[in-house]
Amino acid sequence: LVDYRAEFSKWWVMEFKTVKFPSQGTVFDYYIDPETKKFEPWSKLIPQFEFDPEMPLQ
């Protein structure tokens, strides 16, 4: 299995130079907020997972 995400991200940033993309991370680390039209990290949208060892597995 080959992971081409880093290479694709570099290509995307070079191909779309007029887009002001965040300097950290890859194109896969961000989404475009529909209200502000700005790149935001997915971590802002998706809550962090916390494992509860007391919860039984189903």
UniProtKB/TrEMBL annotation:
<protein>
    <recommendedName>
        <fullName>Dynein heavy chain AAA 5 extension domain-containing protein</fullName>
    </recommendedName>
</protein>
<feature type="domain" description="Dynein heavy chain AAA 5 extension">
    <location>
        <begin position="3"/>
        <end position="43"/>
    </location>
</feature>
<dbReference type="Pfam" id="PF17852">
    <property type="entry name" value="Dynein_AAA_lid"/>
</dbReference>
<dbReference type="InterPro" id="IPR041466">
    <property type="entry name" value="Dynein_AAA5_ext"/>
</dbReference>
